[in-house]
UniProtKB/TrEMBL annotation:
PANTHER family: SENSOR HISTIDINE KINASE RCSC, TWO-COMPONENT HISTIDINE KINASE
Keywords: Kinase, Membrane, Phosphoprotein, Transferase, Transmembrane, Transmembrane helix, Two-component regulatory system
Domain named Histidine kinase: residues: 417-638
Protein name according to UniProt: histidine kinase
Length: 670
């Protein structure tokens, strides 16, 4: 007998040692930090509560209950919670429970436990069975319970120490709800483990089959192992079936409980039929939902009882609570996964995974609504596009109208200007002719006088010819009838000869003309006639608007592929806002002054056309009262040497110079 007692003492000490090691090493039992603190706290005003969980720290429903307790007790600092776990899924025989009870007595031997809070059946059975055991830590200690699924009958003496929440199994409501939602279901798979709760559910369902909304086949698929559950589902996987899952499962290859989400994933791989539950933790794993005991609400109720006990109220005054504290919960996303009409669900249902703007409408209605919204969006978008298009079209039409109006004004002004330009030289020619006739009639003709008047006639004829040529050339350029006739020449020589041809004329107006080149010879394809006309137009313009004692500089250079000619003057310049328009036909940068043809507005338009025909470009830079620079760029190219239609001689160049400078005889000084 002594040997047995001695061995028992050693076993107890060994269990205490192992239990303390477990508490230190188990990361999931972080709540034990609070437990240890409570043990050291010897404040006589503390109300010490021993919370015994039937399972381990990973049990989600028990965690929800404790969460509710903790939230409620946040402001009650005198209530000290001490957490313990039976871990009944691994072992729950009498020997283990007796040793566990003895271990608790040793562990809390230095403090008084004022109340025991048991969660689920196994913890309650342990506490109740030792309530009147004087050797136990539970001896005549108030017991508050929840999560107990078995039928309970208490003696009057027990009711002096025991109170809590008695769950009312409402499996009939869950099954009838499933049958109402799924009108085609004729088979229900009840998936259970071997825990007390599962057995209670099984017996309850067996007793209520006569009260179902309609007759359905019930298949009980019960095992501790997930492999057996999956096999059972494969054998009962009809298209018109539904499933109710309760319990935790493990693999035959190991002792660890499968995470609930992994359990559901494996089940979904086997069956595509909807899954419901009675257990709160499962509603967060992607199933449809269920009618579940809400752990946080249980925790709140238990905490209220603890508060009343800590304030001195007797257990016998606290009535048993007959309420499962259930919620009807659905996963919003899963409703549409299984094509469930939300309008068929019970009122006051709770929805998880539902956004603030998610609508509780049938899938077909949501599709119709979505299509309607898309159609409305497209309709509004089309209206907006139409309005923008109309606005752009109106702006375009307005711009076209203003452009047409401006062109009409320019044409009218051009006709008026051309008429004036034609009338002036014609009048001079006519008047000079009349004077000559009078002289001839009077036989009083002076040779110098005659030469001077003939010069008037010649100069104004040149002005008329230049104006007519400009109009004809502009017409040819716009219609595409003017072409370049290239021949291989030294472009440096062509430019130099052209510049030198107007030096004397410019000097007569006290304007210095300089020519500078970086290259003495650049052989390239040149249309000599058109290049001369371009240069003379630009030089004529520079002379016209450069004051006396000013200068004109012509510089020629080249890069790898181009010949570049800069014509720079110190004239009156051009306003910056006029620069974008100076190449437009009929456009005048000044109502009183025209850069190239006095009043005609054609000069630069013709110059740009001639440059473009020669595959070149023209750019301008100008500042008012400082001067202007025109830059001509022509590509260096080769052509087959063709004999030109006619050879340009120095006399031809002089005639061209005479023609292009015909309107600068009496130039104003600016």
């Amino acid at each position: 007998m002594r040997i047995l007692k001695s061995n028992k003492w050693y076993i107890q000490m060994l269990l205490i040692f192992l239990f303390n090691i477990f508490c230190i090493m188990d990361p999931a039992s972080a709540n034990n930090i609070e437990v240890n603190k409570s043990i050291d706290n010897k404040n006589k005003n503390d109300f010490n509560v021993l919370v015994i969980n039937s399972y381990n720290p990973y049990s989600e429903w028990e965690s929800y209950v404790f969460q509710g307790i903790k939230n409620k007790l946040d402001n009650d600092t005198n209530i000290k919670i001490n957490l313990e776990y039976i871990d009944s899924r691994k072992r729950c025989d009498k020997e283990y429970l007796d040793e566990f009870s003895d271990l608790l007595k040793l562990k809390y031997s230095n403090k008084k436990i004022d109340a025991v809070l048991s969660i689920d059946d196994e913890a309650f059975d342990l506490a109740r069975s030792n309530l009147f055991n004087s050797e136990s830590i539970f001896y005549k200690t108030p017991i508050i319970f929840t999560g107990v699924n078995q039928n309970l009958n208490f003696t009057n003496e027990e009711l002096n120490y025991i109170t809590g929440v008695i769950e009312i199994e409402n499996n009939l409501q869950l099954i009838n709800m499933i049958l109402s939602i799924h009108t085609n279901v004729n088979e229900l798979n009840i998936i259970l483990d071997n825990a007390t709760y599962s057995n209670v559910i099984k017996e309850n369902i067996k007793g209520i089959t006569d009260y179902f909304n309609r007759s359905v086949k019930i298949n009980y698929i019960q095992s501790t192992y997930i492999e057996d559950i999956l096999e059972g589902l494969e054998n009962n996987n009809g298209p018109n079936s539904a499933n109710i899952i309760i319990g935790d499962y493990k693999s035959k290859d190991g002792d660890d409980i499968y995470p609930l989400s992994e359990t559901i994933r494996l089940i979904k791989d086997v069956t595509k039929t909807p899954i419901y539950t009675k257990a709160q933790p499962y509603v967060f794993t992607g199933i449809v939902g269920g009618i579940v005991d809400w752990g946080q609400d249980h925790g709140n109720v238990l905490a209220e009882i603890l508060i009343r006990l800590s304030e001195g109220e007797k257990v016998s005054n606290l009535k048993l609570i007959f309420d499962s504290l259930e919620k009807v919960v659905f996963d919003y996303k899963s409703l549409y996964e299984y094509n469930i009409n939300p309008l068929t669900l019970p009122e006051n249902s709770v929805f998880i995974n539902k956004g603030p703007f998610d609508l509780l409408l049938p899938k077909s209605v949501k599709i119709i609504l979505l299509l309607a919204l898309i159609s409305l969006f497209i309709f509004v978008l089309l209206i907006v596009i139409k309005m923008i298009s109309h606005k752009r079209e109106s702006a375009k039409n307005k711009k076209l109208y203003l452009t047409a109006q401006e062109e009409e004004r320019l044409k009218t002004e051009f006709i008026s200007t051309v008429s004036h330009e034609l009338r002036t030289p014609i009048n001079i020619i006519l008047n000079t002719s009349k004077l000559l006739n009078l002289k001839i009639e009077n036989s009083n003709i002076d040779k110098e006088y005659l030469k001077d008047k003939l010069n008037y006639i010649d100069q104004n004829s040149q002005r008329l010819l230049r104006l007519v040529n400009n109009i004809l050339d502009l017409t040819k350029i716009q219609s595409g009838f003017m072409e370049a006739h290239f021949e291989m020449k030294n472009i440096v020589e062509v430019v130099e000869n052209t510049v030198l041809s107007i030096v004397d004329f410019a000097k007569s107006h006290n304007i210095e003309v300089l020519f500078d080149t970086e290259e003495e010879e650049i052989i390239t394809a040149v249309d000599e006639e058109k290049l001369e006309r371009v240069l003379l137009n630009l030089l004529s313009n520079s002379i016209k608007f450069t004051s006396a004692n000013g200068n004109i500089m012509v510089m020629l250079r080249k890069d790898i592929e181009n010949v570049i000619i800069d014509i720079k003057d110190t004239g009156i310049g051009i306003e910056e806002e006029d620069l974008p328009y100076i190449f437009d036909k009929f456009k005048q940068v000044d109502s009183s002054l025209t850069r190239f043809n006095e009043g005609s507005g054609l000069g630069l338009s013709i110059v740009k056309g001639l440059v473009t025909i020669q595959n070149g470009t023209i750019d301008v830079f100008s500042k008012k009262n400082i001067g202007t620079v025109f830059t001509l760029t022509f590509p260096i190219t080769e052509v087959t040497q063709n004999k030109p239609k006619y050879a340009i001689t120095s006399s031809d160049l002089q005639e061209t110079v005479k023609l292009e400078l015909s309107d600068i005889k009496d130039k104003e000084n600016y």
